[in-house]
């Protein structure tokens, strides 16, 4: 019996259940039919026109992306859009978003692993209710000065980091890939010396400075792309199919 798009959905459901996505999210099968046959899978952080074309060119019949290709209501469907290109190519698109952030072995566990954190435990917002914890809290094997920790992050994540400097060693570290600045106070109250996340706004940088807390903005793309290779391996092992990682560098420059 051939593998179908639904089988890929089931494989994702087994460790990142779609019902655990947050209320604002739009994870799931967003383009295509669950009964369509699949012989190759593409995995990307974003379902952009470029990654859709790359997935199709690789021979994939389904693209698993972290960020949903449809997030806000569509008011038009230009031929240049990722949704149109996927549908025209017969490429199914599945989003595993906040359910993958929170999953065991998902984005934040992968980020903690990339940073070499041990004794990793979940870290949640106090008002999260029944939602699974998004963040993680762990410890470095050895404490580092703030400047050295910033350099370590830049090396491990292949990025430039923006951070609030502190005059104390960093060892207990909270992480939340993507936009996780809301975990600032929970991380502080949990005894963290630093929070590594992205999309940090001005007022939270000031708040972190008031508390002598190292808040790090390491980039949305950079803190989440760490999940792509492990997700490829998991799907390949579970389904016995070739899985292609698709990376599209951010279209930005720094000066």
| Tally of strands | 11
How many alpha or pi helices? 10
**Average pLDDT across residues?**
96
Give the percentage of residues in beta strands: 15-25%
CATH topology of the largest domain: Udp-n-acetylmuramoylalanyl-d-glutamate--2,6- Diaminopimelate Ligase, Chain: A, domain 1
CATH-defined architecture of the largest domain: 3-Layer(aba) Sandwich
| Overall form | elongated
Name of the CATH homologous superfamily of the largest domain: NIF3 (NGG1p interacting factor 3)-like
- Distance N terminus to C terminus? 54 Å
Structural class: alpha/beta
Rg is 19 Å
Low-confidence stretches: none
Instruction: Look at the structure and give the CATH class of the largest domain.
Output: Alpha Beta
Description:
- With 255 residues, this protein is of the alpha/beta class.
- It has 2 domains: 5-99 and 225-246, Udp-n-acetylmuramoylalanyl-d-glutamate--2,6- Diaminopimelate Ligase, Chain: A, domain 1, CATH 3.40.1390; 104-217, Udp-n-acetylmuramoylalanyl-d-glutamate--2,6- Diaminopimelate Ligase, Chain: A, domain 1 (3-Layer(aba) Sandwich).
- It is built from 10 helices and 11 strands.
- Strand 3 (62-67), helix 3 and strand 4 (92-95) form a beta-alpha-beta unit.
- The model has no long low-confidence stretch (mean pLDDT 96).
- A 6-stranded mixed beta sheet has the order 5-6-8-9-10-7. It has a 5-stranded mixed beta sheet with strand order 1-4-3-2-11, sandwiched between helices.
- The chain is elongated and about 60 Å long.
- It is 33% helix and 24% strand.
- The chain has helices at residues 5-15, 49-57, 82-89, 98-102, 107-114, 146-157, 184-189, 202-210, 220-224, 228-239, and strands spanning 28-31, 41-46, 62-67, 92-95, 118-123, 135-144, 162-163, 170-179, 194-198, 214-217, 243-246.
């Amino acid at each position: 019996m051939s593998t179908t798009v639904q089988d890929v959905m089931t494989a994702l459901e087994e460790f990142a259940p779609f019902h655990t996505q947050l209320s604002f999210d739009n994870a799931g099968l967003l383009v295509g039919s669950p009964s369509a046959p699949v012989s190759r899978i593409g995995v990307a952080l974003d379902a952009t026109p470029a990654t859709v074309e790359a997935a199709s060119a690789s021979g994939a019949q389904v693209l698993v992306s972290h960020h949903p290709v449809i997030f806000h209501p569509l008011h038009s469907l230009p031929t240049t859009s990722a949704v149109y290109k996927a549908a025209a190519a017969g490429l199914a698109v599945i989003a595993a978003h906040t359910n993958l952030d929170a999953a065991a072995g998902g984005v934040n566990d992968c980020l903690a692993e990339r940073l070499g954190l041990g004794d990793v435990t979940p870290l949640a917002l106090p008002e999260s209710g029944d939602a699974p914890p998004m963040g993680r809290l762990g410890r470095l094997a050895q404490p580092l000065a703030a400047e050295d920790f910033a350099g370590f992050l830049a090396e491990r994540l292949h990025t430039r980091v923006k951070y609030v400097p502190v005059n104390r060693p960093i060892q207990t570290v909270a992480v939340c890939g993507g936009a996780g600045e809301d975990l600032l106070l929970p991380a502080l109250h949990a005894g963290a010396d630093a929070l590594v996340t992205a999309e940090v706004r001005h007022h939270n940088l000031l708040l972190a400075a008031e508390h002598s807390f190292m808040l790090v903005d390491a980039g949305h793309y950079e803190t989440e792309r760490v999940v792509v290779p492990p997700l490829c391996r998991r799907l390949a092992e579970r389904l016995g199919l070739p899985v292609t990682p698709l990376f599209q560098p951010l279209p930005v420059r720094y000066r």
